[in-house]
Amino acid sequence: MTVGSFMPPRSPLWATAFDRFSRAHPGVRLLHAEGEAVASLSEVDALVAARIDAEQLLKATSLKALFLPLTGLNHLPLELLQKRDIEVYNLHANAESVAQNALAMTLAFFGRLIEFHNDLRTTRWHGFWVGKGAEDEWSSIFGKRCAILGTGAIGQALAGLFKAFRFEVVGYRLHPTNPLPPGFDRVEAILERALAGADIVVSTLPLTAATRGLLGRKELEAMRGAFLVNVGRGEVIEEEALYLALREGVIAGAGIDVWYTYPGPGETMRAPSRFPIHELANVVLSPHVGGSTREASRDAAGLTLANLASWLEKGVARNRVDLSEGF
């Protein structure tokens, strides 16, 4: 059996995980991308990779399984993977980190933390110390009602965090399950029912054919006055509709970690949208780092290779992706 890796073998986290894996599976040939893996793709039975493009996939003629150290799939050649009947397994090691990021953006918005922080950096004060009244008050989130779109690992982690603030938590899922996912008071299969009356709406949804543009002008109007958080994928929310809803005050604000345009290879500068969302005062900005914690990175390496080991030893592994659904 031959296993290929596009992950960094010299990273301390991955080096430790690969070393443990190799000792436990001395009969497995392990190829790394920086050495022989790319040239030997035709020999690889299983691949550990964050990305693989169609050209590489066509060369991997023996590939049976792909193990992702992350959650999202929309960057992969899904149709080709499905046509080749290649098993794909993803990971939810960053779910708690992404949930924490969503909570942090929510607290920052309602607490006006960015505004107050930026002003105090220039020595400008707010509040009763300088004789300010109601105009400088901020809002507590205790007792709010929240709609979480997506009741998977991130949604469940976030629901648990929100429960500490005595939230009523409503979930949205196309196919509700029984029993209720942990932390949810109820789950709706109709989007409008999930959004109704929500003070805070959080999208944790993956990008699929069913979710692309799910939240448009009509849906944003339905959540009028709410705070919207997106930690799933940018294109789940229609880009122009979001900008207009924020600019015109249809929704109170947004906390956004996932975007519409990203820097290209070698770049570090680029606007995150075709519209100047990043210039609006009612937006908390995050550069798609919600899952980029040390803890999530540590867990991703170990859990990915543990899943690979299960597949090699038992023929089964956790978190197999439904390629037809895209998650």
Question: Could you please describe the fold and organization of this structure?
Answer:
With 327 residues, the chain is an alpha/beta fold. It folds into 2 domains: 2-93 and 294-314, Rossmann fold (3-Layer(aba) Sandwich), CATH 3.40.50; 95-285, NAD(P)-binding Rossmann-like Domain (Rossmann fold). It is 31% helix and 14% strand. The chain has 10 helices and 12 strands. It has helices spanning 12-24, 54-59, 78-83, 95-110, 113-121, 153-163, 191-195, 217-222, 239-247, 294-314; strands at residues 2-5, 29-32, 46-48, 65-67, 87-89, 145-149, 168-172, 186-188, 200-203, 227-230, 253-256, 283-285. The strands form 2 sheets. A 7-stranded parallel beta sheet has the order 8-7-6-9-10-11-12. A 5-stranded parallel beta sheet has the order 2-1-3-4-5, covered by helices on one side. The chain is elongated and about 75 Å long. The two termini are 27 Å apart.
